[in-house]
Design brief:
The complex is a heterodimer of chains A (110) and B (112). Chain A contains no helices and eleven strands. With 110 residues, chain A is mainly beta. The relative contact order of chain A is 0.33. The mean pLDDT of chain A is 92. Chain B has 112 residues and is mainly beta. In chain B, strands 2, 4, 5, 6, 9, 10 and 11 form a seven-stranded mixed β-sheet that branches. Chain B has a four-stranded antiparallel β-sheet with strand order 1-3-8-7, with no helix packed on it. Chain B is globular, with a radius of gyration of 13 Å. Classes of the chains: A mainly beta (110), B mainly beta (112). Chains A and B meet through strand 5, strand 9 and strand 10 of A and strand 5 and strand 10 of B.
């Protein structure tokens, strides 16, 4: 059974500093997704990581995937208030469904 | 394109009532999914469909039923609603099983 764990679950960030969120998963998979969810809203796709060593960047966010370690990281550079949200990683299970982590809630303060 | 649409946005049910959550996508996606999200938790898969006429159970199917008569529509039926079904329900679709999933706006359901 595929399990996905994120840590930390909550992260209080200071503006301008760098942080990393970790996503570990328990069985082999070569596809991992990162989503953002604002309070009371739906999920917005951020990154799709399709192979070992994949790295994608969008603005202050950079995601990477290490399939051998079964680990993905989401790195935040110089946090700003607009990044406050909950971030989910999700791992493809046998090409039929996604298994989600519990999410990491980020709060950015000045 | 409207993408994935869901109705209703909010609903309050009494214990034992039934209802259908509607989901429609206009992207000609083969795969469609129903998830539920409980407070402070990630999404859990209820049912999914790989095409019209084909559905399968996900992680938490008990208390729900689905059908897929067309490519566009994937309704979720709740029979005999229970308080444990209070949740936010998201419908999603993707072109293939390995593709990016696109989510609808969600339905917030309360069972009292």
């Amino acid at each position: 059974e595929l399990k996905v764990e994120q840590n930390p679950l909550f992260l209080s960030m200071q503006e301008g500093k760098n942080y990393t969120i970790y996503c570990n998963y328990s069985t082999t998979s070569d596809r991992l997704y990162w989503y953002r969810q604002d309070p009371g809203k739906s999920l917005e796709s951020l990154f799709v990581l399709l192979s070992n060593g994949a790295v994608k960047q969008e603005g202050r966010l950079m995601a990477s995937l290490d399939t051998k370690a079964r680990l993905s990281t989401l790195h935040i550079t110089a946090a700003v208030h607009d990044l406050s949200a909950t971030y989910f990683c999700a791992v493809d299970q046998a090409g039929t469904a996604l298994i989600f982590g519990k999410g990491t809630t980020l709060s950015v303060s000045s | 394109n409207a993408g994935v649409t869901q109705t209703p946005k909010f609903r309050i049910l009494k214990i034992g009532q039934s209802m259908t959550l509607q989901c429609t996508q206009d992207m000609n996606h083969n795969y469609m999914y129903w998830y539920r999200q409980d407070p402070g938790m990630g999404l859990k898969l209820i049912y999914y469909s790989v095409g019209a006429g084909i559905t399968d159970k996900g992680e938490v199917p008990n208390g729900y039923n689905v059908s897929r008569s067309t490519t566009e529509d994937f309704p979720l039926r709740l029979e005999l609603a229970a308080p444990s079904q209070t949740s936010v329900y998201f419908c999603a679709s993707s072109f293939s099983g390995k593709g990016e999933q696109y989510f609808g706006p969600g339905t917030r359901l309360t069972v009292t």
